[in-house]
Design goal:
single chain; 138 residues; mainly alpha; 81% helix
């Protein structure tokens, strides 16, 4: 757990622009992989479900998380709110687990980086979000 805490601390220290660049680069790598597995729209949906479950783990979409989400996925505040409500709960977390499980080790690293960029953008990663990451790594 100490190593995970160190990793989380390093992500929280990253500037917004660095988190944004990493998330965009990760998305560019993830989308073709998931699209090849699930079809174009379903590929995007897999990525969205995963990050949605991570953000919804604590039941709160902070203003920085919302802005980051809207900017990266090119959605409105209202869509972000609906997105958050849709991805709360055990069903979304279980689906995120399955998405993570089908990834190669390399894609798991990319998916974790993508997710951590979203979680770290508000400089606070609460215990529920840490539990989401820990669950994936178990």
């Amino acid at each position: 757990m100490s190593m995970l805490n160190d990793v989380l601390t390093n992500y929280k220290k990253l500037e917004y622009s660095e988190l944004q660049k990493r998330a965009r680069d990760d998305y560019a790598l993830l989308l073709p992989v998931f699209s090849s597995l699930a079809g174009d729209q379903s590929g995007k949906r897999c990525v969205i479900i995963f990050v949605g479950a991570a953000l919804a783990a604590d039941g709160v979409l902070s203003l920085p998380e919302r802005a980051f989400l809207c900017e990266l996925l090119n959605i409105t505040d209202e869509e972000a709110e609906r997105f958050m409500k849709k991805h709360m709960g055990e069903k979304a977390a279980s689906l995120a687990d399955r998405i993570f499980d089908i990834c190669s080790p390399q894609m798991k690293e990319v998916l974790l980086d993508f997710c951590l960029c979203f979680l770290a953008v508000d400089k606070d990663i609460p215990p529920e979000e840490i539990s989401f990451i820990t669950r994936l790594l178990a």
